[in-house]
């Protein structure tokens, strides 16, 4: 008897090969190497409900969006991805897909201010309570869980803007022991540096506005789900239903820009983090700086965990000024290359005074960000120019 054919399993492709090719095949009709932007709302039918390529109406699906969703699912190692009009639209759709009035959320205390606003003002009004927790303290996280009531644990790591690191394996264990879902906001790390689904998360959310788009020219969001369910409904189904029924979808132009950005994510991120590491070290030696927060520094409390859990330390650095709030404000207003603005993850460097800008919505609450803190989104420019800009700004600020 002939031996059965032994077929070698397909070799798993690398991250960048996947980023360039997954969901981005040349157009079968024309051979265009870059899949077209399908700027259309509807699709002609060959008979009643006889669809040519499965697309009916662009709220349900659009080939440009499907291409981006395929790319994102492949890069996060997810079962399905769904693209939305913004990061918050993605978060909203995911939460509505899995929550019912009366449910409870355990929410990482240092996170994106807008996530906090969404959970408190929008979901709070629907009877969903939340408990903020220290993301680095597993005992506090477990103690915040209300058995049978907590439906979601939500965490962002590295966190914004303190750059604390959460142990995702520990978070997943606590969530699953309580029958709850673990959602991870992976915006800061991007799938290039961290893949939470492989560490036990049930869903990942992204603001594709940041590193994925990468050029500060598009707003977008995504939910990537594992092949798991909640209350007996697969996440693929419940999130897909929200996307279609509520309709906060990514449009074709925005989907194209996010997909185009994803193709060069690894190259940009390598440069972002090389620049960030160099500036973090340099800032540590400056007398105006009391403390540098960057997970790549050996003295960062989350350094060892980040080294284990991530494939790099990212491109965001926060600093606390020795001169307190006035010095922080003056520094943020004194740079020239670093543009004073909210957002992050673009090729150009940005600076912000977090407590008054990105985190104004939690001002005066226990979640408020230290007033002496400035966040740097380090771009891909030549690092010597960035260093010179920061040095000049620190000197200018000291003279004010
Ligand atoms: C920007 C951001 C969001 C919100 O995304 P939008 O695209 O602005 O709606 C969510 N989480 C994190 C970590 C972010 O930085």
UniProtKB/TrEMBL annotation:
Belongs to the trans-sulfuration enzymes family. Keywords: Pyridoxal phosphate, Transferase. InterPro entries: Cys/Met-Metab_PyrdxlP-dep_enz (IPR000277), PyrdxlP-dep_Trfase (IPR015424), PyrdxlP-dep_Trfase_major (IPR015421), PyrdxlP-dep_Trfase_small (IPR015422). One of its GO terms (biological process) is transsulfuration. Its EC number is 2.5.1.48. This is Cystathionine gamma-synthase. The keyword Ion transport does not apply. Pfam families: Cys_Met_Meta_PP. It is an enzyme of class 2 (transferase). Its cofactor is pyridoxal 5'-phosphate. One of its GO terms (cellular component) is cytoplasm. SUPFAM superfamilies: PLP-dependent transferases.
């Amino acid at each position: 008897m002939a031996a059965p054919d032994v077929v070698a399993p397909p070799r798993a492709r690398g991250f960048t090969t996947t980023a360039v090719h997954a969901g981005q095949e040349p157009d079968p009709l024309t051979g265009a190497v870059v899949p077209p932007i399908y700027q259309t709302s509807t699709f002609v039918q060959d008979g009643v409900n006889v669809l040519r390529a499965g697309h009916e109406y662009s709220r349900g699906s659009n080939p440009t969006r499907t291409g981006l969703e395929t790319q994102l699912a492949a890069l996060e190692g997810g079962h399905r991805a769904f693209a939305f009009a913004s990061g918050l639209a993605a978060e909203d759709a995911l939460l509505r897909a899995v929550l019912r009035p009366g449910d409870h959320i355990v929410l990482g205390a240092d996170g994106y201010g807008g996530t906090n606003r969404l959970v408190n003002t929008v979901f709070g009004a629907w009877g969903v309570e939340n408990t903020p927790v220290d993301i680095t303290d597993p005992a506090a996280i477990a103690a915040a869980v209300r058995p049978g009531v907590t439906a979601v644990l939500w965490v962002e790591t590295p966190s914004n803007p303190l750059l604390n690191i959460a142990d995702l394996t520990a978070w997943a264990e606590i969530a699953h022991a309580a029958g709850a879902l673990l959602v991870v906001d992976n915006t800061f790390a991007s799938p290039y540096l961290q893949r939470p689904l492989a560490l036990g998360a049930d869903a990942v959310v992204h603001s594709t506005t940041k590193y994925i788009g990468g050029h500060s020219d598009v707003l977008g969001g995504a939910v990537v789900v594992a092949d798991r369910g909640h209350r007996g409904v697969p996440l693929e189904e419940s999130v897909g239903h929200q996307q279609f029924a509520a309709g906060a979808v990514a449009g074709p132009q925005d989907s194209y820009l996010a997909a185009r950005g994803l193709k060069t994510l690894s190259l940009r991120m390598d440069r972002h983090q090389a620049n960030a590491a160099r500036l973090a070290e340099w800032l540590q030696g400056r007398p105006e700086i009391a403390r540098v927060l960057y997970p790549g520094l050996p003295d960062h409390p989350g350094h060892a965990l980040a080294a284990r859990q991530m494939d790099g330390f990212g491109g965001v650095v926060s600093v606390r000024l020795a001169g307190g709030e006035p010095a922080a404000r003056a520094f943020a207003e004194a740079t020239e290359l670093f543009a004073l603005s909210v957002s992050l993850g673009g090729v150009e460097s940005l600076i912000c005074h977090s407590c008054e800008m990105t985190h104004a919505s939690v001002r005066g609450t226990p979640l408020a960000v230290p007033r002496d803190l400035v966040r740097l989104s380090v771009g891909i420019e030549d690092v010597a120019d960035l260093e010179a800009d920061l040095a000049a700004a620190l000197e200018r600020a000291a003279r004010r």
